[in-house]
Amino acid sequence: MARRLPVYLVLDTSGSMMGEPIAAVETGVQTLISALRQDPYALETAYLSVITFDTNAKQIVPLTELTAFQMPSIQASGTTALGDALALLANKIENEVTRTTAEVKGDWKPLVFIMTDGGPTDNWQKGLSDFRKCKVGMVVACAAGQGADTNVLKQITECVVQLDTADSSTIKAFLNGFLLRSVPEVKK
């Protein structure tokens, strides 16, 4: 089996995301998918998963080949269980990403996009503690909506962007930078 590039989309679907923030998330996901589909290497290796979180976190799309990926519709309601989402993400990375062993070249380190307005209502630091134990290639936190609180996001990753100003060229720059650092032999 070829090495996969797992891409996890962790999407806030809580009530505070209603309106402009959830629209920004949908646009951001479409921009990301479009950028991935324009990259020949990503077309061959990228597998996407969608984890949503509101009152509970759930994986609504398991790791799926990019060419077969269909973004489900998302609705905003409930509270913001960011900690649950990070803990679930850690669990999915642990169980779905193939590790490199003496016999097998494993998957590339996952690329994670977290899209939220940054207002968790649970003990998110515990979930963050679980997530920090995972080996990931890059984490990009995307602040959704004008009123997004980036303070929480900056505690998860240094790489924080505003979804409303992140166009396709910004997303492509992240992807290319990640691919160059993670998979240098394919981009030569």
Report on this structure.
By secondary structure, this protein is α/β, with parallel strands linked by helices. The protein has helices at residues 20-37, 40-45, 82-96, 124-132, 150-156, 168-182, and strands at residues 5-12, 46-53, 57-65, 111-116, 138-143, 160-162. Strands 3-2-1-4-5-6 form a 6-stranded mixed β-sheet, sandwiched between helices. Strand 5 (138-143), helix 5 and strand 6 (160-162) form a beta-alpha-beta unit. Helix 1 crosses helix 6 (168-182) and helix 3 runs parallel beside helix 4 (124-132). The protein is globular. Residues 184-188 have low confidence and may be disordered.
Keywords for this entry:
globular, 6 strands
Short précis:
By secondary structure, the chain is of the alpha/beta class. The chain has helices at 20-37, 40-45, 82-96, 124-132, 150-156, 168-182, and strands at residues 5-12, 46-53, 57-65, 111-116, 138-143, 160-162.
